[in-house]
Design a protein that fits this description.
84 residues, alpha+beta, two-stranded antiparallel ribbon, binds zinc ion
Length: 84
């Protein structure tokens, strides 16, 4: 397997993963939604995922960003700036 084929296979696999499962496990709280404070060890709501335990994958976030740019560039706007 050539390196280019391996990289292409990995990219297609990651794109399929981002399409099928857009949310991954929060690395900060490990899907519990809360984690202990550093000094007091009291459980607080996770700020990374806002307590949901899930985070949007980087590939999906990039896709959403590019899709929003494409939508904004191709959608007709009215005089006050709101899209139709
Ligand atoms: Zn979290």
């Amino acid at each position: 397997m050539t390196p280019l084929l391996a990289a292409t296979t990995l990219a297609i696999g990651y794109a399929a993963l981002c399409w099928a499962l857009p949310f991954g496990r929060c690395w900060r709280c490990k899907k519990t939604g809360s984690h202990p404070r550093l000094i007091t060890r009291r459980l607080r709501t996770c700020r990374r995922c806002k307590g949901s335990g899930l985070r949007l994958r980087y590939g999906r976030r990039t896709y959403n960003f590019l899709a929003r740019i494409h939508h904004d560039a191709t959608t007709a706007r009215t005089r006050n700036g709101a899209s139709r």
